[in-house]
Specification:
four-stranded antiparallel sheet; five-stranded antiparallel sheet; 28% strand; alpha+beta; 16 helices
Amino acid sequence: MKESMGIQIGGIVSGFDTESLITALTENDKKPLDLMQDKMDRLEEVQLAWQDVNMRLTNLRSTVTQLKMSSTFNSKTATSSDDKVLTASASTSAAAGSYQIKVNKLASYHRYVFSSAATITGDSSATASTALGLTGSFTFKSADSTNTGSITITATDTLNSILEKINKANAGVTASLIDGKLVIKSDTMGSKGQITLTDTGGGTAFTDLGLTETTAAQDAEIVYEGMTITRSTNSISDVISGVTLNLVGESTTNVSLTIATDTTKGYDAIKAFVEQYNSLMEFIDEKTSVASQSALSERDEDDLSPYDSTRERGVLQGDSTIINLESQIRMMVSKSVAGLSTTLNALSAIGVTTSYYSGEGERQQATLVIDESKLQQALAEGPGSASVTARDGIPVKYNSFISKTAAAITGNTSATASTDLNLTGSFTVKSADSVATASITVSATDSLTDIMNNINAAGAGVTASIVDNKLLITSNSMGTPGQVVLTDTGGGTAFADLGLTEQTTVSSADNAIQSGQSGRLIIEIDGKDYSIQFSGPKTSQEVVDGINAVIGSVAKASLNSSNRLVITDRSTGVNSVIRIKQILEDHSGDLAKLGFVQGDSGRGKDVAAFFTAQVAETQGSITSFAALADTPVTTSGTLGLKIDGADYSIAFTGAYNRSDVVSKINNTIGEVAQAYLDSNNCLVIRSLKTGTSSSVQVTRVDAGLAGLNLAVGQYGAGANGITGLAITLDNFYASYVSSGGILSKKDQLLSNQIDDIADQMNALTDRIVAKEERLWKQFSDMETRLQELQYQSQTISAYLGALTGSSSSSSSSSSS
């Protein structure tokens, strides 16, 4: 509060305590100031709390920034079993696995050394600055240099001057002085740096310089996957994708290089996020809490309300903004990410769960806790590929035969596959499509394992293995080409005693596709369609080979242990998507035997995707299988479509060219879908809707519309978009904390309210100061008047006294 000006002195004449009187007169005026100050203190406390929320949200965002980066989760480690032979580094694109590498040779620079000046001149005191007294010339260059250096040496040249001439030539070599000798080294390693030196005559300098090769030009040589590979450098980055090999030494045996996902970075990022999330939630809980209600017996006897009004409350208690903020963040963190695999679509799926605990026995508070083993396991699994698996087994089988157990053959219940069988005899084995035949001679000391090894060594189109102490012989080819042929060639009873019986049989009818014209399979892989035309008959292996011939660069078809057809994407992570888009066939139903169902789909999994995925929603669409002719519709007919579940019918009358076909279709479906021609003049019909409820299906194609290259049953569905948790949280942060965000507006509002109260307090203080000054003036005026009156009174009294005294004196005189 402002103070009045000047020195105030009062009550001298009146005897009043003027200051106390003025204080009493202004006391009621000052009471609103206390209320305003309390309100300001409260608002400043609220503002500080919101600023703390802002800071914690910002800290949370910094952890989210790390979670938004796929490199946080996809970092790789490269570990060598012998770092004296090789070390390596791996990028995020490197595939996890173990690689065997043998280093035969290290790449080296080509080097020559000159004789010392003392040797050349015969003077033991000669140095690199001593004239050599030589004449002559020579040329030099490295194999990869476009320039040739030409040096002419005169009698006054020294090793130093020769060094300068060599380096100025820029011929792919560098000269330097080492221990008083001139050394020239190629600038490039390996054979590309091979130095060629040529004496061009004119003297004996070239010979007298005494050039000696100290290190030959040599390429690095490694053996990887059975292949011998040479490179001109010891840093090799084009052999294993995403891996740089650093060759250090030569080896006589393989060195194991292990590429693995580095889980540390991802784990630390998730842990930091959880800690900051908990910090924010605990702070919000503290600032919005209400203390427990006291019992009536503990309250003031006058407080008869059913509620305890004295309970302590957090400074933000009841604030709708903080309640909404907390609710939204908790909802985002607990919600699963739509579109991802259910195995990795929520924090709980990777070991981060909500744990309720008691703060101080007063209320429950939700924070996040980490199951370390589950999280580490999820991170270690790394990105996975999308795949689809057929539902029914394909009827084509591998042919196989199995023997009796070792115990049954020998009569010894403890016999194993390694026990001597004590049999003699011989037999042959091969597959029907093998040009080689395995001729097996069994001796008394042979075991089932020995016979297995002998069969496998022959390479006769079959593979032998031991299963439950039995010998299993299986063809390497499916169907009739893999029919196993076994022949007893005599010399003993071994063949009969082995008791080989057919376990799985094949026949000429064992074909996955049997008819001549079978149809077409359309597979969508990572957003692109691949069309495979089948014409039978075909075995399962031929089906696999036919699919791989089309999709082999992006995906792989194979048969699993249950003889089901599996198609697996070669890419990994959330963007790895495979879908059986369309199955079109003739009336034989052959493609149904493949076990695929239209609409089957799979998406790759990746812990990173849960945080980082940002994939837009897609629309359902279909595409004609070939470019439309100039006039695809030749006669009248009807095209039936089902778009987003609703039926549409387009009737064509007469012939239509391509553009008229598009216009005709759009006239009917224009509000729900769009027809257009792509760059290849293929007809595309795409729903205007997005997500899983978006679909386009062909329900009718009359004969006159064959040129549209559409078929009944064609179907294409849309997919939901995917937005990872980190992206969602980052967007949320921006809405609250960015310039103009909710918290920014909240802080500004509080500042304005605080400023308004400060202005009101200053105005009221000014009024009180003015009133005090006015009262002081009034009291001062009163004192002045009283003083004047007192003076007048004294004057009058003196005057009256004087008058009284004068009369008395006169009377006395008269009496005398």
